[in-house]
Design a protein that fits this description.
3 helices
């Protein structure tokens, strides 16, 4: 068997396994984070989590497939390892960037949710106070 085909097979096996492992890790740990972001709505958190995982798979498997081609034929074991290290290194970098992108977006959503919760007053308003009068017609303020 041609070593280039061996490189393709090993590259695909490792890349697919790494993508599945990262997606499952993100899904398992991201579910708790999403539940917090979505104010405890478990069904919505599960749905968003599933959509994020599907998108993660599509983008990463698409990249792995596009990056499969090899310009040069692999002639010996050294070239095999060099080709695999470059290809797998790029796949790992893409997985890392995708992970950081997901965490960044989810953190922005979470921050917005925290800001919204902080804007709600702890006690409902009990009345309305108009603006303080200004100008020469305003009554004098008593000094203490």
């Amino acid at each position: 068997m041609d070593l280039t085909v061996v490189a393709y097979i090993v590259y695909l096996l490792i890349s697919v396994a790494l993508t599945i492992w990262v997606a499952r890790t993100l899904s398992r740990n991201g579910r708790i984070f999403l539940s917090d972001v979505l104010h405890g709505n478990e069904k919505l958190a599960d749905a968003v989590n599933h959509l994020l995982v599907v998108g993660f798979y599509l983008v990463n498997f698409g990249f792995v497939a596009l990056y499969l081609s090899q310009d040069e034929a692999v002639m010996d074991a050294r070239a095999l390892f060099e080709a695999l290290s470059v290809k797998l290194g790029v796949v790992l970098l893409v997985l890392g960037v995708m992970h950081l992108g997901n965490v960044y977006v989810l953190n922005k959503i979470r921050r917005r949710g925290v800001m919204e919760r902080e804007q709600v007053p702890p006690v409902p308003p009990q009345g309305w106070t108009g603006p303080a009068p200004k100008g020469p017609w305003a009554p004098p303020v008593a000094e203490a």
